[in-house]
Design goal:
CATH topology of the largest domain: Methylamine Dehydrogenase, Chain H
Largest sheet: 4 strands, antiparallel
Radius of gyration: 21 Å
Oligomer: single chain
Number of strands: 32
């Protein structure tokens, strides 16, 4: 498998080099754009462009497992055969780490360490390197909850560095910062939703300077900014307890503010088509959940009515609710996973529930789409694959680690947690706090 994948990489590099030579601009280093995973939830698609199709059953093979320095709750990202991760280390998270590993072998290529501008006791109640970075042809941009924002080349050289704490003040939040980065070709969006004067920045990737700075939502949120195509343009969605805002990503101007939602503090909006997006809402007053949280899970549409923006639900769920992960849509079905680990499959056009099924455990991550199947990354380390369709059908599962114990000496709520999975062709890269695991799907 490793040689097969490496062969694909080399062939792709060769094709790009020949094309660039013909056009007269052979680059100094040819970087592979695909296969890859470029940001949190891969920009809301939550799948890989080169994902494989699978049959009536699936088998798994562990390729490698790699211990990471420090601990992190962020998703890995991949570019050109390299996996990038973030982590923090120390009793008070004094050190922030960005590392690069080979996709084929897991071998560490390089790592850079930075001083945390705002050390804070490392407990299970606050985030630990939760924001997922972004990666593109220029390199990787990473954000840490202490206010550190860095840009690093693919070779591991620092391009620029910023201390948001020094620039804009304390990043006060009860449970830390977990909003991941969103990106366009030229800009990266940094959202700091704090108790006072929350803000969002558009930062030029090349220079590290601000394009604009705008006010945040002003409500509790651990969600991530999300770009949504509306007509011929894009809008930047910010979802926080009680309402969702739409901004112009070029200027930061607020276009609309929708207040007909509750419990939306954790799931990130997931783009569909024609200005529509899936929204997830959680249960429980501590996260803003209302008396009927299912009514706030569903599909919202943004459209232009004359000179004003119109924003409203197209449908609400009857029973389905969300947890830490976001809902996803695949081939006409919308999937929600609640706190108890129950999967709901809903008709994405009308909201009618097709089935509900308890899965291996609750989930802290978001399901990943695999062509004609859905990958369920359960919190306890079980990865379950189910078939698309109106009825629940399990195609197989794998247990990434044994139960019991803690994650080294940095355990989270009694044991290891599967925080995220990403998909690169026929490989699942799983992130637990202290480890990366590569699993081939067969």
């Amino acid at each position: 498998m490793c040689f097969k994948y490496l062969s694909k990489v080399l062939r792709h590099h060769l094709r790009i080099s020949i094309l660039c030579f013909i056009l007269g601009f052979l680059p100094s280093s040819v970087l592979l754009a695909e296969p890859g995973w470029f940001s949190f939830q891969n920009g809301g698609s939550n799948t890989s462009e080169n994902a494989v199709e699978i049959g009536q059953s699936v088998q798994f093979k562990k390729i490698w497992a790699m211990e990471l320095e420090g601990y992190g709750q962020s998703s890995p990202v991949v570019w050109g055969g390299t996996i990038y991760t973030t982590a923090v280390l120390g009793k008070n998270k004094e050190k922030c780490i960005v590392a690069a590993h080979e996709l084929v072998s897991g071998k560490k290529v390089w790592s850079l360490s930075f001083r945390n501008p705002a050390p804070r006791e490392s407990t299970v109640y606050v985030s630990k390197a939760a924001p997922t970075p972004v990666v593109d042809s220029q390199g990787i941009v990473a954000l840490f909850e202490g206010g550190l924002l860095v840009s690093i080349s693919h070779e591991g050289k620092l391009a620029w560095q910023r201390d948001l704490l020094d620039e804009f003040g304390e990043l006060s939040s009860n449970h830390g910062l977990s909003s991941s980065l969103e990106q366009t070709q030229k800009s990266v969006f940094v959202w700091v939703e704090r108790k006072e004067a929350p803000y969002i920045l558009s930062v030029d990737k090349k220079s590290g300077k601000d394009n604009w700075k705008a006010s945040g939502v002003g409500a509790t949120s651990w969600a991530t900014p999300r770009l949504l195509k509306v007509g011929d343009s894009q809008q930047l969605l910010l979802s926080g307890g009680g309402h969702i805002m739409g901004l112009d990503p070029l200027t930061g101007k607020k276009l609309w503010d929708f207040v007909g939602v509750d419990g939306n503090t954790v799931p990130t909006p997931m783009p569909l088509r024609d200005g529509k997006f899936l929204i997830g809402a959680t249960t429980g007053g501590g996260e803003g959940g209302g008396g009927n949280p299912a009514a706030f899970n569903g599909v919202i549409k943004v459209s232009l009515a004359g000179q004003e923006w119109s924003v409203d639900y197209l449908w609400h769920c009857e029973k389905a609710t969300s947890s830490f992960g976001s809902p996803v849509e695949m081939n006409g079905l919308a999937y929600f996973v609640n706190r108890a680990g129950v999967l709901f499959a809903v008709d994405a056009s009308k909201g009618e529930e097709l089935y509900s099924q308890r899965i291996a455990s609750s989930m802290w991550a978001t399901p990943v789409k695999l062509g004609n199947a859905l990958i369920l990354p359960c919190k306890n380390g079980i990865i379950q694959v189910i078939a698309e369709g109106d009825e629940f059908s399990s195609l197989g599962e794998i247990k990434l680690w044994e139960d019991g114990g803690t994650e080294g000496q940095r355990g989270s709520f009694g044991g290891p947690v599967l925080y995220a999975i990403i998909l690169v062709e026929d490989q699942i890269i799983a992130r637990r706090g202290d480890k990366l695991i590569n699993v081939q799907i067969k």
